[in-house]
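Escalated from tier 1: HAX holo job.
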Amino acid sequence: MSKTLKETLSLQISALREEAKSIVKNHGKKTVDQVIIDQLYGGMRGIKGLICDTSSVGLDTGLIIRGIPILELTEKLPEEIFYLLLTGKLPAAEELKSLQSDLKKREEVPSYVWDVLNSTPKDSHPMVMFSAAILCMEKESEFRKLYDSGYSKDKLWEPMYEDCLNIIARAPQIAAFIYRKKFGKGDMIAPDSKLDWAGNFAKMLGIDDKDGTFAKLMRLYMVLHSDHEGGNASAFTNLVISSTLSDAYYSISGALNALSGPLHGLANQECLKFIVKMLNDIGHQPTDEEVTAYCQNLLDNGRVVSGYGHPVLRITDPRFTAFLEFGKAHLPDDSTFRLVKQLFEIVPDLLVKQGKAKDPWPNVDASSGSLLYHYGITEYEYYTVLFGVSRILGYSAQLIISRMMNFAIIRPKSVTTDWIKKQIAAD
Ligand code: HAX
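Tier 2 regenerated the structure:
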């Protein structure tokens, strides 16, 4: 009989811990980076300061999950990606089935979550609702219960696993509830036990999907947004919170709050808003000249072009490419999608000419919203919730691994401006 995911992980633990111990013992004093003042004032960009084995993002490769480029994973299910993030290998058919049935068993959402969501003010942002729903389930935490009972630190990864799997299993239902409540779409749609995780989510959102392409998009969306190494703002927040031995409910809710900024996860909302506004302002499907003039005007007025640039990429984001290919295959004539393609032809040159952005290429947010819009999710305030549901896979994998590895509390050193001035004077 095949092993469960948890059994597979428990077999990996001692080798992983031994490897880390030996690296630190034998090479602990080796220098791997130097820090310059620019990086202190520039958001610690590029400083190598964390271990994260789930995925890596190369400047000229984009997202690579456990050695596999994301464009080679676009046909996989999100559950397979979660397994890959955690263990370093894709699951065999039986292993996938076992994970899917485990998630099914955990999907019942405590009823008080609906009360919390029903009592949020009508004008609350969907991300506030999502983060609050995750946080209010903290009282369910197995990690907290076992920590309080004096459970051995070496075994805390087990309740972390339980909490994370529970959150993953429940997130789609909570997110679908938020969509239907916030935007007046009618009653909650019950989960379907026969469907996969993302297919079920697509169904619970209530989008008309006779040919199943929306479910296909949701599977792709959940795969593409699942992880982006450990240093991005929300993943880092997640790791910082959990390094204090806070449980997954606190950590993931906090991570979602970091995801809610317009320079991070909220960019998908901003990007679609920008595209729809451009179509409305121009009043018709714009010509290349009109798109050029519109974007140039933004740049001349000190605004950013949403969906372009990235802190750690210097190429077209492969996740953008995957969505572009989906759009070409399924909605080539859609007007917002046509504008996405047009912007891709025009904006990089404008950014290069302006000479400020280090990365003039599109990121994932430049294309994702137009696809959702086409299938009827026109409420772009909701887009970051979809990103969040997917990224919970990565946050969870990183939390479980951090506890498996017993990583230390994160506590970098800050310095004062006076200290910096003294360093400069000493040269
Ligand atoms: N349009 C106009 N100017 C841009 C730009 C863009 N798309 N991208 C960068 N720049 C500008 C910056 O504003 C900055 O200007 P100042 O020196 O005047 O401050 C300059 O170019 C250098 O910035 P950078 O070093 O290239 O970029 P950062 O690493 O600081 O920031 C951002 C990366 C993604 C925040 C940035 O490119 C941006 O604001 N892009 C538009 C918003 C966006 O698409 N965000 C989504 C990012 C993907 C993500 O994380 N999703 O979760």
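The CA atoms of residues 157 and 404 lie 5 Å apart.
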